[in-house]
Amino acid sequence: MGLFDFVKGIGKKNTAPAEPQAAPAAPAEPSAQEVANKLLGHVKSLGLPITGLSVSYNGASDLAAVKGQVQTQADREKIVLALGNIDHVAQVDDQLTVVSPEPESKFYTVKPGDNLSKISKEFYGDANQYNKIFEANRPLLKNADDIFPGQVLRIPA
What we know:
- This protein has helices at residues 32-45, 73-84, 116-124, 130-136, and strands at 2-5, 50-58, 63-70, 91-98, 106-109, 152-155.
- It is built from four helices and six strands.
- By secondary structure, it is α+β, with helices and mostly antiparallel strands.
């Protein structure tokens, strides 16, 4: 899919546990490796099927790069969004491969005052199709009201 831009500083705080590593005491500012380990832990916590997962992070450019293999385009997009909707990530370099390629979903950046019904009305012409968007963004969303301005969502065809 390539390189994706996100709005830095507005995403959710990354509270996932870091992947274990042998390291000296952490400095006040986390290293790029520590951030990469937390991002890796975050993606793994979603329970999406992926093999050969690796995540790197460049603090100078706030770029997260992800590699691995997934079965579906939907899983690929969810992983990219999971990384990009973290507060300190500005770009995601998607290097994932898909076993069964499918058409890509559209992405939508949430605006102030948006809700899933309003977004559904815009894309599908029917506010009652909001559950289609909610399901397309699980496990990233825990409930239909769990969206925030600047967040990027998958909008399936």
